[in-house]
Write a structure and sequence with these properties.
Pfam families: Big_5, PDZ_6, Peptidase_S41
Mean pLDDT: 89
Shape: globular
Radius of gyration: 26 Å
Organism: Sporosarcina quadrami
Distance between the termini: 37 Å
Number of helices: 10
Number of domains: 3
CATH class of the largest domain: Mainly Beta
Helix content: 10-25%
Keywords: Hydrolase, Protease, Serine protease, Signal
Protein name: PDZ domain-containing protein
CATH topology of the largest domain: Pdz3 Domain
CATH superfamily of the largest domain: PDZ domain
InterPro entries: ClpP/crotonase-like_dom_sf, PDZ, PDZ_6, PDZ_sf, Peptidase_S41A, SbsA_Ig, Tail-specific_protease
Largest sheet: 6 strands, mixed
Length: 464
């Protein structure tokens, strides 16, 4: 029950930055200005009992969890997160009653090198308790200037008991690309969007161009907590036939539908969209839209359910009020806030990519003969293929053989002819324990009389 109240670090707001001409003292909170902004722009009516509170923190407690007053340092850390510019230890965090919990550790970052693992609870940073602190308040204590150190007190659950650790970690610049991409086995383009940042559309266009002509795509927005609302409009425009991005409902205004920004590069062919419980805000804008118009099949788990937009109001002392000023819906009015997007194909956590990849491969082998699966094979497995008639293996088409790791790339295989009906397929590198594969042989071989094989074959393989 507690988990529903937690806000992961990645759940960045869909924001529209507004600079307000307020002049305030750097020594005090701009309390009167905060009251005015809340009363005028907050998405719901706010009672006087909330507006009359004596501090910004008390006022924010009367609003939704995404409205927060940030100091200059907290705001800078927040914006760096959206733009994937981070100097720190390299962890993704969420709030916990007793500190901040590590959701994941960035590969090759300082925390990873120090042995921090997902599930660790950070209770203190340089002796300062993190208990009860918001993510915005915890970030400046854990992150900091490059090449400085932070001492973390950690609680780790192991074999049913809590182990207390202390680690000193040197902060460094962490590189988090906005877009990652690769060509998966089967000529299936994989694109991962980590944030709806200012450069997202440029990086996506580059990724699509570099992938070339993929037969289909898997678009991954798992753990993507959002970003700029304008980026959501731009990303929507990469999908053919998507003309509208979302519907926005602001206080005391008629609903407005915002257009998608059409892009030159297009994600064409069947598309799978990967989501999970930490896909939020702008990610949900995209997901509900693509699902509504049938532009993608959604895989994963129900998304976070953050269907609100925040506006940033900046003050002269560098502090910022992040205020919920609108709710968004699909262009046709499907609600997101508090509901999330339910996937078309529900998968186990961590199996979103492999499941979608398998389905894409199945489209390629439609009408092929399905041979019995091979389970728990060795990593050094050699596959023997025996035909029913004599073949002309001298003209064998090596492109007809595809050994594909699910969620990964094509594995090169060496073909060894044993006799006129039999060949051995030897993977050129060991298979990976615990992974699944699909072996596909397309009907491009010919027999000794020059007749082409009529039906392809495929089989599923798991490695012990």
């Amino acid at each position: 029950m507690i988990r529903k109240t937690l806000r992961p670090l990645l759940l960045l707001a869909a924001i529209l930055i507004v600079i307000m001409p307020f002049t305030v003292s750097a020594a005090t909170e701009p309390l009167d200005e905060i009251r005015q902004l809340v009363q005028k722009h907050y998405v719901d009516e706010v009672p006087e009992s909330v507006l009359s509170k004596g501090t910004s923190k008390e006022i924010m407690k009367g609003l939704d969890v995404h409205s927060v007053y940030m100091t200059k340092a907290e705001y800078e850390a927040f914006m760096n997160g959206i733009e994937q510019r981070i100097v720190g230890i390299g962890v993704v965090l969420e709030e916990d009653l007793n500190g901040v919990k590590v959701l994941s550790v960035i590969k090759d970052g300082p925390a990873s090198s120090a042995g921090i693992v997902a599930g660790d609870l950070l209770t203190h940073a340089d002796g300062v308790s993190l208990k009860g602190k918001s993510i915005q308040a915890a970030i400046p204590l854990i992150s900091g200037e490059e090449n400085t150190e932070v001492v973390l007190a950690i609680e780790r659950m192991k074999e049913g008991r809590i182990i207390k650790l202390t680690k000193t970690i040197r902060r460094a610049e962490i590189h988090l690309p906005t877009v990652e991409y690769e060509m998966l086995g089967g000529n299936i383009g994989y694109i991962r969007l980590n944030s709806f940042a200012g450069d997202s559309s440029k990086e996506l266009a580059r990724a699509i161009s570099k992938l070339g002509k993929a037969d289909s795509y898997i678009f991954d927005i798992r753990n993507n907590g959002g970003g700029y609302i304008t980026a959501a409009q731009e990303v929507s425009g990469f999908f053919p036939d998507v003309k509208e991005a979302f519907q926005l409902r602001e206080k005391n205004k008629e609903p407005s539908i915002y257009p998608a920004v059409n892009q030159k590069e297009q994600i064409e062919g069947p598309v799978s969209l990967l989501v999970n419980e930490f896909s939020a805000s702008a990610s949900e804008m995209l997901a509900v839209n693509l699902k509504e118009v049938g532009a993608a099949t959604v895989y994963g788990q129900n998304t976070y359910g953050k269907g609100t937009m925040q506006t940033m109001y900046a003050f002269s002392d560098g502090s910022v009020l992040k205020l919920t000023t609108a709710r968004f819906y699909s262009p046709k009015g499907i609600a997101v806030n508090g509901v999330g997007i339910y996937p078309d194909v529900v998968t186990n956590v961590g199996e979103e990519l492999t499941t979608a990849h398998f389905d894409h491969l199945m489209l390629k082998v439609k009408g092929y003969a399905h041979l019995s699966s091979l389970e728990n094979v060795k990593t050094t497995k050699t596959f023997t293929v025996q035909m029913t008639k004599a073949m002309d293996f001298s003209t064998i088409d090596h492109s007809a053989i595809e050994l594909v790791e699910l969620g990964g790339q094509r594995i090169p295989v060496k073909v060894v002819v044993k006799d006129s009906k039999t060949v051995e397929l030897i993977p050129e590198k060991p298979l990976v324990a615990g992974r699944s594969y699909m072996l596909i042989i397309h009907p491009r071989w010919v027999d000794t009389k020059g007749r082409q094989v009529k039906t392809g074959i495929y089989l599923n393989v798991t490695v012990k």
